[in-house]
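Sample entry (385 residues):
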Amino acid sequence: MVRTPRLLMIPGPTPVVRSIQNQMARETVAFGDADFIADFRGVVADLKTMWRCDGEVFVVAGSGTLAMEMAISNVTKRDDDVLVCSHGFFGDRFIDMCSRRGLKVDVLAAKWGSVPVPEQMDARLSEKKYAAVTVTHVDTSTGAMAPLKEICDMMKARHPEALLIVDAVAAAGGAESWMDWGIDVLLTCSQKAFGVAPGLAVLWAGRRAVERRAALGTIPESYVDFEKWIPVMNDPAKYWGTPPVNMIWALKESMRIIKEEGLEERYARHARQAAIFVSAMEALGFRPAAGEGHRAPTLTIFFYPEGSGLEDAAFRAKLAEEGVQSAGCLAGFAGRGFRLGHMGNIDKHTLVGTIAAVERACIRCGYRVAPGKGLSVLQEGLVRE
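Predicted structure, serialized as tokens:
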């Protein structure tokens, strides 16, 4: 029996295209190699320019979680008041991180599937002076996307003293965000919309965030300290921690792909294709968990059709046999649906293959759908796309 290759359609890691894989497979050189230093310098410069950052960019070995801790550690001090705006499992991570740092944490939590809105945030921010506010742009546990531009506008107009930290792990490179909207710290990692394997934490720190770090003096953390890394990011010939050479090359190739497509077009493509993909799944009876006004363009949580008889573990196992790897839901959504990523460098063939596999898995699990029902919706949309 020939094994069907599996499409990696989880919320991350995302599929890694061959040209990026080739960079990871290169013979590793010394991190002091002149050509590598030039490559690293170019990656940092591109990230700074493309995301319109007036401060510093950090590319370090680590995960998105490390980038979250890096953000908190460099702009807050013990007993600072911090407002955590959460609409899912990963937004809640900031609560634990901030508490461990000795911060005074208040939480504005939205019901799963919805998001905090600027009016709610304004009301909470008016109650006391906060040093920082955290917002999750896209939470992969819910598939919901916060209205980031509106939040930035509200904070600039109403609460400019508070620094805005944005977790863009499942958004940067797939959902629109620019540092000059008024974001002070933006963070992500390599394996989501950048389409690189796991291994890199990426963080943009605006001028105000860099100034806040300088005002703190010595901080307890070492590895994630902005002031340890700024000399390296400005001149990669310098040393603090060993850079992951091949991963930097992979990110360079990812940046080449993004520049070739154009960042604005990349955002627009994600939005267009996500809408088409959701329509195809809805034609099969699946329902997105996030409300229509705030669905993420990078992934979707699909609830199983009522009365379908589909059982989560069995369905996802059949879907894997049919060639698509999906992710289970978390916390209160567990068992009610499954998660499909549609971000990064995936193409139309991948989307077609995914919907076809979903149809086959449904039929094999006893949920009768007309073969091609979802595919026809997808294909009609992709032709127009």
